[in-house]
Amino acid sequence: MSTNGKSYKIVIIGAGPAGYFTAQAFQKAQRSDLSFAIDMIERLPTPWGLVRSGVAPDHPKIKTVSKVFEKIAKEPNFRLFANVELGKDVSLKDLRNQYDVVVLATGTSRGRKLGIPGEELKNSLSAADFVPWYNAHPDFVDVEVDLSSDTAVVIGAGNVAMDVARILAIDPAELDPTDVAEHALVKLKQSNIRTVIICGRRGPEHAAFTAPELRDLAKLENTDVYIDSKQIEDAIKHIEEMDEVEKDLRNNIEAMKAIAGHEKKEVARKLEIKFLSTPIEIKGNGKVQEVVFQKNKVESGKVVPTNETFSIKTGLVVTAIGYDSVKHQGVTIKSGRIKNIAGHVEHNVYAVGWAKRGPTGVIGTNKSDSTDVVDLIIENLKEPKTSEGITALLKSGHEVIDQTAWEKINASEVISGEIAGKPRIKEVDWKQLICLGRS
Ligand code: NAP
Description:
- By secondary structure, the protein is α/β, with parallel strands linked by helices.
- The chain contains 15 helices and 19 strands.
- It has a six-stranded mixed beta sheet with strand order 3-2-1-4-19-18, sandwiched between helices.
- A hairpin with a 6-residue loop joins β11 (277-283) and β12 (290-299).
- The N and C termini lie far apart (47 Å).
- The model has no long low-confidence stretch (mean pLDDT 96).
- The structure holds NADP nicotinamide-adenine-dinucleotide phosphate (NAP).
- NADP nicotinamide-adenine-dinucleotide phosphate binds at residues 59, 62, 114, 155-161, 163, 200-202, 206, 208, 210, 213, 320-322, 359-362.
């Protein structure tokens, strides 16, 4: 392929971490004879994806990656088109025609279902709704969350389950200096929940938590964290029988052992992690009242069910068992993600991030992953198109939030936050966000 002095039009759909790292990979791949004009489309009037609406408010350090995103956005070959929805304001077909390359960085926003009786009861929520609710996502402001019971159950043994459990279990005053949604903070301050139980279906040795997040649990000031020492001892025995043990697993077990043995503060707020418990039914009269679990055991490294069941009385269940991609016209979803080979979807369409590989990995995982896809894209480039790009596609009068408008929204939120001693106060109203962008 000859790319002598060629400039290609790239459109990235989705302004989350995978989208930004893809833009960065294109920026880094530029040479004197190869350049890219990058347009990023985002459905919301705000960029940053999960860094804004997924990362827990009490984990501000993780959000500092937004500084990298803003640096990428300041490059002269980058344009932001937020408040533009794929399938509504622009079609994939049109984008494919107008651009040399279309990159889908649309994530996986649909929460997976347990598929058990009672899952549809009131106050049985998916983390896919609960997390954006407390993170001020405009679409989730009205999620009905009832925190009137004393106990909450969180299903899943991954970092999202841990985020959800922590937010429910900590003293809400600890969220005062954060960017948690104002409506959520009000509710959390009125919450009666004092016990939060995370339930994983397999053993501690199979948990999807990561060690830094587990270590953070031991540091909670107003919440005692419990893990059954016997479950950890058994897990250690199982690990000893393994031929090879990964460092991450050793670190996880160490962190869980420390939690199990940690001296308790004997405070009212409790967070428990229970393993080997598969939810089989959610019971309740119109609303969640109880979750029934089957007890499991580990036999020859495999998790098998026992005949024993137990139940937990609770008024709130949050399911955090992973996510699937939403459907887009012209794209096939397979196993919850966009069907692709190493990021290639078809013709000039590619996928990156969770849309490509499913909901795995931390934010930084997207950096190398996006670079690999961009390398493949560059290998596949043909002659650049002489088309107009997105401006040919949007209806006249469509209000785009561009980088300048976003910077106005950003500044306004940060200023409101400064007054209140918070990093920002997020605006949750879509129309108001657009107004802030105009100001
Ligand atoms: P995850 O890490 O894949 O964990 C999902 C959990 O759900 C697993 O424990 C899984 O158990 C369980 N599960 C799946 N289906 C189930 C079912 N039918 N019944 C009961 N349990 C079920 O997913 P995640 O927590 O959504 O996190 C997604 C990614 O984001 C992960 O890579 C995570 O590390 C990352 N993340 C990172 C941070 C951070 O760094 N602070 C914060 C949040 C998320 P099995 O293993 O038995 O399938």
